């Protein structure tokens, strides 16, 4: 498939949409101040997003049914957690996490 | 992570992210080529759309010749959480010029967002343009370079998901989540643990009815709302 009109317009449309989603809050907040309730709300967004992105990797979607557990990622999460608790260092955590996941993948 | 907000510190802090991006972007490059796209299209997606998981959805929908509108709307839904992240980061840059805000916003990702939120705990709740810009740029350049690599060597590597590399970003989020948990004294550990639990439970049930991306957006909204409720009334 070469870069025809179809692919080009799709890429263009998707790029505009994501850019719009990313920058509008920055534009709006230059002119308005958020009310206290919204600011309080946004305080909780980071921990919720980080937790959500982790949980997402532990579940396998089965449409219309309860999700299955991704045992490999759940198992690999254990050494990653232990590493960050001990080292408090992200880079070491990522390296140990990858090694842990690699070992689990080879073992099972 | 230190209290330094220089560009140099931004690069250092974003290294784990860059490492995580390599395998995913290589995988994207390979899948893009094997699904029938030319190298230019694959690169354009990484350079201009730059939206991680949605890029994978776009190539699979292109491969099945889906309607352009349905691809764009899917991208909108998958990436809608970006607005929530921008909304959270933007107040820290209200003294920064609009053009710089637009630039930072254009390159913000899940990972550089999470990194910024962690950084706040070390810098007395401040962020700087040079720090976030450096972190953003490193992530962006690595994403583009790794996509190119994947697109070029496409035929050589059969399964880039192998060897545990796909776990890199998950490990990073585990690290970021833990560091956030122990360092955000404002919120306290108990309250944050409750939010994590709420997110886990609601994600589990949301996945019955919604795709993972929509479930993520919903659970973040539910989790944060519960946080506010606890703060206000208990």
List keywords for this structure.
heterodimer, A: 108 residues, mainly alpha, 5 helices, 4% strand, B: 234 residues, 2 domains, 11 helices
Structural topology:
The complex is a heterodimer of chains A (108) and B (234).
Chain A: H1 5-31, H2 36-43, H3 45-58, E1 59-60, E2 68-69, H4 71-87, H5 90-107
Antiparallel strand pairs in A: 1-2
Helix pairs in contact in A: 4-5
Chain B: H1 7-34, H2 39-49, H3 53-63, H4 68-79, H5 81-89, H6 98-106, H7 110-119, H8 129-153, H9 168-183, H10 189-209, H11 212-233
Indicate how many domains the architecture of chain B comprises: 2
The largest inter-chain interface, given as chain pair and residues per side, is: A-B, 79 and 97 residues
Helical content of chain B stands at over 70%
The count of strands of chain B amounts to 0
Largest sheet of chain A: 2 strands, antiparallel
Order of helices and strands of chain B: HHHHHHHHHHH
Uncertain ranges of chain A:
none
- What is the CA-based Rg of chain A, rounded? 20 Å
- Estimated share of beta-strand residues of chain B: under 5%
Mean pLDDT of chain A: 90
List low-confidence stretches of chain B.
none
Quick structural overview:
Chain A is mostly helical. Chain A contains five helices and two strands, in the order αααββαα. In chain A, a hairpin with a 7-residue loop joins β1 and β2.
Q: What do these coordinates show?
A:
- Chain A has 108 residues and is mainly alpha-helical.
- Chain A has two domains: 1-32; 35-107, no CATH class.
- Chain A is 78% helix and 4% strand.
- Chain A has five helices and two strands.
- Chain A has helices spanning 5-31, 36-43, 45-58, 71-87, 90-107, and strands at residues 59-60, 68-69.
- In chain A, α4 runs antiparallel to α5 (90-107).
- By secondary structure, chain B is mostly helical.
- Chain B has two domains: 7-186, no CATH class; 187-234, no CATH class.
- Chain B is 74% helix and 0% strand.
- Chain B is globular, with a radius of gyration of 19 Å.
- Chains A and B meet through α1, α2, α3, α4 and α5 of A and α1, α2, α3, α4 and α5 of B.
